[in-house]
Design brief:
Largest sheet: none
Number of helices: 11
Structural class: mainly alpha
Radius of gyration: 20 Å
Distance between the termini: 28 Å
Length: 312
């Protein structure tokens, strides 16, 4: 049973289908952000994780500024307040469980590879490209599977619920992920890279590709015409955040839409007016700490859990 909560809603009757220069931004960012990560690693001698983090923070800042000027939906335009503060806290702390998990998986992978082989093998350029592409596809399939399970398995949903709590979409809330959600995402991302011998620097570039897609998916900008056939885009991901359960349980892909096409979960349509999760009998903490501890206490968090005082 899905853990989304159903609520009647109206749909927008029409969306703009006129071409706009803004439509060029998605492919530009998709190419430019990973390229900038590579430049910072090679020419500025930044550590790959630091280079990727700098690029993604800059990407979010750029998109937030554009959202203020050209919002897809004006009522979703972000203002200073509790919701924005919660998103900033998620952005500030998201790298901690992510990086710790990647280090642990990399260390475990190196140990396994050392046990299997006496010496490391240096990949040729063609082999490196093939291994990197294969690792990206494998991890993307894994993230599709865990994302879909997060909506259908009661024990996983509380760790993913925070991501669906906002009643508006913005590039600011793209990283609103519970620490456990971040850990299993990072493990799925990293393990194929390590086992296939992809260097850390190349892995950082691939991670930038995936993160760029994920951040842009949430942007309150009209960046696509809803006809992409390869990469998950904002028009698809807005549908996934719909309150209506019959609409929201679609478009689970992290990056590549092929998985939704293959497994029958792809859905096109106008952007839903109502996004988020809601039900009279189910309260969702709105603050960072409340959402972090919610899976430990569930509904008891609001009554008799020792952590109740941290709920906001």
């Amino acid at each position: 049973m899905s853990m989304h909560f159903e609520m009647p809603q109206k749909w927008q009757e029409s969306q703009s289908t006129r071409w706009s220069p803004m439509r060029l931004m998605f492919p530009t960012l998709l190419l430019g952000a990973p390229a900038l990560t590579a430049i910072l690693i090679v020419y500025a001698n930044l550590a790959p994780p630091l280079a990727m983090t700098a690029v993604l923070i800059g990407l979010i800042a750029l998109l937030v500024a554009l959202e203020q000027r050209w919002p897809f939906r004006s009522e979703w335009r972000r203002q200073p307040g509790p919701e924005t503060f919660t998103d900033v806290l998620y952005i500030a702390f998201a790298s901690l469980p992510d990086r710790a998990t990647r280090i642990a998986v990399e260390a475990a992978g190196v140990l396994l590879l050392t046990m299997w082989s006496a010496s490391a093998t240096t990949l040729s350029t063609s082999s490196l490209i093939a291994h990197a592409a294969l690792a990206f596809v494998i991890s993307d399939l894994g993230k599709y599977a865990i994302h879909r399970a997060s909506h259908y398995r009661a024990w996983l949903w509380p760790f993913h619920m925070a991501h669906h709590q906002p009643a508006s979409l913005s590039s600011l809330n793209a990283l609103r992920l519970h620490a456990v959600n971040t850990v299993y995402n990072a493990a799925i991302d990293t393990l194929p890279l390590v086992l296939l011998g992809v260097p850390v620097a190349v892995g950082a570039v691939l991670a930038t590709v995936r993160a760029t897609i994920g951040i842009v998916q949430h942007a309150n900008l009209d960046l696509d015409a809803g006809k992409q056939w390869l990469v998950n885009a904002p028009s698809y991901h807005r549908i996934h955040h719909a309150v209506d359960i019959s609409v929201a349980n679609h478009n689970f892909a992290s990056s590549l839409l092929v998985w939704d096409r293959l497994f029958g979960t792809l859905q096109r349509g106008p952007a839903p007016i109502a996004v988020g999760i809601t039900a009279p009998s189910h309260r969702v903490p709105r603050g960072f700490v409340g959402q972090l501890v919610y899976p430990l206490c569930r509904e008891r968090l609001f009554t008799r859990c020792l952590l109740t005082k941290w709920v906001r």
